[in-house]
Structures are given as structure tokens and as C-alpha cells.
Design goal:
The protein has two domains: 3-247, Aspartate Aminotransferase, domain 2 (3-Layer(aba) Sandwich); 251-343, Aspartate Aminotransferase, domain 1, CATH 3.90.1150. The termini are far apart. It has helices at residues 3-6, 9-12, 20-23, 52-62, 75-86, 103-110, 128-133, 157-166, 220-229, 237-246, 249-274, 297-306, 331-343, and strands at residues 69-72, 93-98, 114-119, 139-145, 170-174, 196-201, 214-217, 279-282, 289-294, 312-313, 323-327. It contains 13 helices and eleven strands. Helix content is 37%, strand content 16%. With 346 residues, the protein is α/β, with parallel strands linked by helices. Helix 5 (75-86) crosses helix 6 (103-110). A seven-stranded mixed beta sheet has the order 1-7-6-5-4-2-3, with helices on both faces. It binds pyridoxal-5'-phosphate. Pyridoxal-5'-phosphate binds next to helix 5.
Amino acid sequence: MNLKELLRENILNLKPYSCARDEFKGQASVYLDANESPYNSPCNRYPDPYQLKLKEQISAIKHVPVSKIFLGNGSDEAIDLLYRAFCEPEVDNVVAIEPTYGMYRVSADINNVGYRPVMLNSDFDIEAYRIMDGTNARTKIIWLCSPNNPTANSLNTEEVLKVLRWFRGIVVIDEAYIDFSERESYSKYLKEYPNLVILQTFSKAWANAGVRLGMAFASEEIIAVLNKIKYPYNINILTQEHIQKALKKNNVAQVQEWIRQIKEQRAVLMEELKSLPMVLEVYPSDANFILAKMDGAIHVYNILVKKSIIVRDRSKVSLCDDCLRITVGTPEENQALMSELRKLRY
Ligand SMILES: *Cc1c(COP(=O)(O)O)cnc(C)c1O
């Protein structure tokens, strides 16, 4: 892969905005360089544009060097920046598995970039040669998501590695749900594959969706490009400080306990769902949600809404006819759902 050939020319040649915190790094006693207010500490100060303290903590937990980490305002920022870095509007395109997370397509549409979905097989899995068949000379990015949303399964590792070997552009593996899976992260392949970008997030297992922090792991060269084109102060002080606290040892233990409980509840909920007459199939899950095929998904969905229980209707999604996507909640929330479902008459 040649990054220079892959990048849009304007991005390759871009001279980035140089902010005050770029020009002077280090400690001083009087800061009169950024037109900040001297009052209302700490929010009066612009945040660290490269979030170094936070990245050092993330690096220790994820075993990825600081230089290979990008932080964004949710994973959605990294998704958008990858389009803007690599895909020339109206000229370039991307390939993505189908069905998958909706933001890859929306972001392609916003950036006026072609989107070429390749249908998963009936096991919701990929075949590398079919993914490659979906590409052409103008394909810059392949979007994979494992464990995948909304199908809940992890993709076949051998096939994913074939795509990484065969494709000469960027391969993104979105691991938003990796903490609920027994599989290892693909981050151990970063050295071997300079075209690999991994997305992770604090929105799911880390229980911080409201704070908005997403991670991208990739080669130094790709991370440098994302840093060059992001808003200078994309991660605010409150988010940086909040997640630094979340990464302290005792809180990490709490998060691990939450993950254990969610996986336990996932198994309970899957068994209970299988016992219901209107549930036709419960698909395997490596995530914190369950995809279930219903006899009349929309009917079930509407009854649950009336009972103030909201699940996600995925029945219009390809390969997901009559499917509901159910997030695993607390034992009480899951039992509230089950007790309403048991009342349904068929
Ligand atoms: C929930 C989810 C995310 C998280 O996005 P954020 O912007 O980090 O909240 C990313 N990818 C997938 C596939 C998801 O389902």
C-alpha cells in the first residue's frame, strides 16, 4: 500500500491550522497566547489537541502505542475523517458488508462518495473473494464490523485476514462490541498490516455513550493524517478528564464486572427468548445485544412500545426480515421485557 497514492491530493498537500497549543508545548506559569479568559479554571483553557495524558492511559490498557491512537468525538468522527482523507467525492468509492452499522453509508452519502454493499452470507459471515469482487480501481476503503451490528456475530478471522492481505487500500475493522466477545482484538495485526484501521469506542462496554469518545488504532502515518485534518480541539476538557477517571484501576474493575454481568444476562435472555412461541430464531451473539427473528416483528415491537419497552425494529434491514434487535439490560429490565413477551397470545 502506498499512502501517498491513496490519499486525496488536497489532503496530501494540506498545511494544517496551527493552534496556540501546537506552537508552544510544555509548562509555563503565565499563558497569554490563546486569547483565553483568565477566569473559570479549568474550562477557560483550550484542551490538549492531541490528548496525550488520556492516550497514555488508553495505550496501557489497549497495548497500542500512543503514536498509533487517534481520539475522536465518538467513532463517528473517525468514520467521517477517513472518508475526507481518502475518498474524492464523485470519484472514489468504498465497499462495506451488508447489513451493518448505518453510519458508513450515511457518511459516504454526506461526502458524496460511492457506497458498494456486499451482502453477507446466510451465516452473516464474509467470503473474502466476494468482498474483493465488490471493489474496483476507485475503491479506497473496505468497511468491516466485527462483532457486527445488527447481526451480533464476529466475522470469520481467516476471511478478514485475506481481505487485509489482498486489498491495497484501507481496511477498517469496527470493534465497537469487542469487549463482549471472546475473540481478541485485531490490534495485534497493526504491525503486520499498515492498511488496517481499528475502531473502538467508550460508548458500549465502557458505559460512556453520553461523553462521546471514540478511538482509531492504525499506523503512525494514518494517525498523522487524521490528526492533520481533525478540528484542532476535537475532544473537550470535560470528556478528557471524565474518561481519564474512567480508566483508573478500580473503575476498570467495575467495567469488567459490568461486562461479565451483561454476558451472563445475554445467555439467560437468549435461552428465555428461544422458549417463546413467537420467536423463530435467536442468532448467536458476541455483542451486548441479541438479534431475534419473530413471527410478526412489527406487531411485537408495537405492543412492547405500548408497554413502554423499546427495542429496535430491524425488520426492514437486508437478511433481517422480521428481526428485532434487543439490547441486554439489567436483570430487572430483561425480566420486564420477558414478562410482556410471555403475555402475548398466539
Ligand atoms: C454503537 C456503535 C459505534 C459507536 O459509535 P460512537 O460514535 O463511538 O458512539 C460504532 N460502531 C458501531 C458498529 C456501533 O454499533
